[in-house]
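Need residues for this backbone.
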């Protein structure tokens, strides 16, 4: 199994999971880059996985289905408008011989889910490198609970988030913990990657435990304070 990023929109990543000539697409916010990649690399499309309902993660679904009829779409109940095979917290399913575990990671949307297979976590907007998604629902408890779930994963789990927000997230972290050498070093590494046009993802759970202040928050109140400060940064 290999995982390839497709850059989309202004700062999204669409993830393509590959095994042999078959592919799974995660959160296609647009179709063009995916279609081009599949054609150039002679890949078929087996399934589309969705973490939540926002257009920048779903707008390419219908066009992909037109090009690859019969493609299955999996996602939470909030994506049922795509004739989705509905996934709920605690579900498991198999694709391309890989077992995927589903868990609810709400807060950004009411039904946001994350998907774990082997050591790969597809977390949409529930977790970013150095941060997490805005709590559009207002349910900070749900988002905080999601972060606690991520903390329980093995440190070597790779984090495949939906956006390239790492540099700004780490600039925020540095503004809060200006003497934190781990954050400073991570930020310099990220600047070098971005200067060369390279993705800062995937990260790992272990790395995030050291640099992600929102993930490190020990109480709900601490999380809310940090999330509000990040919103205004």
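Answer:
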């Amino acid at each position: 199994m290999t995982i390839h990023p497709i850059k989309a929109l202004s700062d999204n990543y669409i993830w393509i999971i590959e095994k042999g000539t078959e592919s799974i697409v995660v959160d296609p916010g647009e179709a063009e880059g995916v279609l081009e990649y599949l054609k150039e690399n002679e890949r078929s499309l087996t399934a589309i996985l969705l973490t939540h309902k926002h257009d920048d993660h779903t707008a390419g679904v219908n066009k992909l289905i037109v090009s690859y009829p019969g493609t299955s779409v999996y996602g939470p109940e909030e994506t049922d408008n795509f004739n989705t095979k509905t996934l709920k917290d605690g579900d498991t399913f198999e694709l391309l011989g890989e077992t995927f575990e589903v868990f609810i990671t709400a807060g950004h949307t009411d039904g946001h889910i994350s998907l774990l297979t082997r050591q790969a976590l597809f977390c949409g907007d529930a977790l970013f490198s150095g941060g997490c998604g805005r709590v559009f629902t207002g349910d900070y408890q749900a988002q905080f609970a999601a972060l606690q779930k991520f903390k329980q994963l093995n440190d070597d789990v790779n984090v495949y988030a939906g956006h390239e927000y790492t540099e700004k997230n780490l600039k925020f972290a540095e503004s809060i913990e200006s003497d934190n050498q781990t954050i400073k070093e991570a930020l310099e590494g990220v600047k070098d990657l971005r200067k060369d046009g390279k993705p800062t993802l995937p990260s790992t759970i272990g790395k995030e435990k050291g640099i992600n202040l929102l993930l490190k928050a020990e109480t709900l109140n601490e999380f809310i304070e940090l999330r509000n400060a990040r919103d205004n940064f």
